[in-house]
Design brief:
Layout: E1 33-39, E2 42-43, E3 50-51, E4 59-64, E5 71-76, E6 89-91, E7 97-106, E8 114-124, E9 131-137, E10 142-147, E11 153-158, E12 163-170, E13 173-181, E14 189-194, E15 200-205, E16 210-217, E17 220-229, E18 233-239, E19 245-251, E20 260-268, E21 271-281, E22 284-289, E23 295-300, E24 317-325, E25 328-337, E26 341-346, E27 352-357, E28 362-369, E29 372-381, E30 385-391
């Protein structure tokens, strides 16, 4: 564990001030990027939010899986937070840039200790070391972020104001076009996904238990008014690579260890229709699909985020592997992992799965063996509580 000093003021400037690297070798010509966003401000290990106003700076950990174990760099002083979904990180389709949502600012005047922020940082991966090239404003508490397949547009879910922002993107610069109101702020628009054909954006409206279907028209987003009923409170949302399905995981009431489910939505032309609920485990946090779209992997709290010693507490989270069979999905495997698993992703080549373990301040690496996962035993310490993650494009 990295200690939290009693007094450590966060600098205001955004800078990559240090490289605390497991390996500081130059990346390969075709890097297989995975990016972990790590924060120090909010601790969830006691079953409630603990705010550290004098915490060390947040950080990013950049891993290159073109070799194994991966080359690793820690980039300090890049604010991010666990209060956006684990989808608050994404890569541009060309792999040259990554976007990181900076969703809250500490605020001693507030009872909860923080206020919503409105920033997205653009990390330039062409630099050595990578650095924040610019920062753009968006709506309040940006959470999920998604690029269009051509890399020209970005959608951002603004969790505290019920909007989805539309941006154009050009050579490391985000240009805000508009913020489209799609829901009441209290319903928390949590995540967005862009379809592979570039036509659609689907947004998860967490507390309304629906997905909202939006359409790109030039640089603008249009609300089609279509709302898709899904299981529980949807969080992470993804299109399959073939564009024929949308998947989302949702939590139920959240006051027990009930099994929660994956929702599968069929996409046919302009039609979206929920066709399957797949029960998986309790307390879904994030999931990701393999590059070929044949496998999915999700992480589940499994009670590990509740008060230690309480009736629902378990000392580990879960990883669930599921597979596509035609138009339906089936569960393949369930494995224990560390407490409070936040983000999960396949590596760009699909050979490994990376899991963020929040209170353990580490990344756990699993190998994909057919339709099973094998724990490699590799643990990568990170300088903060890992809270959001994404993999770069396949190369």
């Amino acid at each position: 564990m990295f200690p939290v000093p009693a007094a450590h003021r966060r600098p205001v400037a955004i800078a990559v001030a240090a490289l605390l690297a497991c390996s500081v070798l130059a990346p390969a010509a075709n890097p297989q990027w995975v990016l972990s966003a790590n924060e120090n401000k909010l601790d969830l290990a006691t079953g409630a939010q603990r705010v550290f106003h004098d915490a060390p700076p947040d950080s990013l950990t950049l891993l290159d899986f073109s070799t194994f174990p991966p080359h690793t760099r820690h980039l300090t002083n890049i604010p991010n937070t666990v209060l956006g979904p684990p989808s608050n990180v994404t890569f541009s389709p060309d792999g040259h840039f990554a976007l990181v949502a900076d969703s809250i600012v500490l605020d001693r005047s507030r009872t909860n200790g923080w206020s919503p922020a409105r920033h997205i940082h653009i990390l330039d991966l062409r630099q050595d070391p990578p650095r924040v090239a610019s920062t753009s404003d968006t709506g309040l508490q940006p959470s999920g972020i998604a690029f269009s397949p051509d890399g020209r547009h970005v959608a951002a879910a603004n969790r505290a104001d019920g909007t989805v922002s539309a941006f154009t993107f050009n050579d490391g610069q985000l240009h805000h076009v508009e913020a489209l109101r799609i829901a009441d702020p209290s319903t928390e628009v949590a995540d967005v996904a862009c379809s592979p054909d570039g036509r659609w954006v689907v947004a998860s409206v967490n507390k309304s238990s629906v997905l909202a279907v939006l359409r790109w028209e030039g640089d603008h987003l249009v609300d089609t008014q279509r709302r898709i009923s899904v299981y529980g409170r949807p969080y992470r949302v993804r299109f399959t690579p073939d564009g024929q399905q949308v998947l989302t995981t949702g939590a139920g009431a959240g006051n027990g260890d009930d099994i929660d489910a994956l929702s599968i939505v069929e996409v046919r032309g302009d039609s979206f229709r929920t066709t399957q609920f797949l029960p998986l485990a309790s307390g879904p946090e994030s999931f990701e699909l393999s590059p070929d779209g044949k496998l999915g992997v999700g992480v589940f709290m499994n009670g590990s985020n509740t008060t230690p010693g309480g009736p629902l507490f378990k000392d580990h989270g879960l990883i669930v592997l599921f597979a596509r069979e035609g138009n339906r999905w089936v569960q393949r495997q369930t494995l224990p992992t560390g407490r409070i698993p936040e983000g999960v992703t396949f590596t760009p080549d699909g050979r490994h799965v990376v899991v963020q373990c929040h209170p353990d301040r580490e990344l756990r690496i699993y190998r994909v063996a057919g339709s099973k996962l094998k724990d490699t035993g590799v643990r990568i310490p990170v300088p903060g509580m890992p809270s959001g993650m994404a993999a770069g494009p396949a190369r």
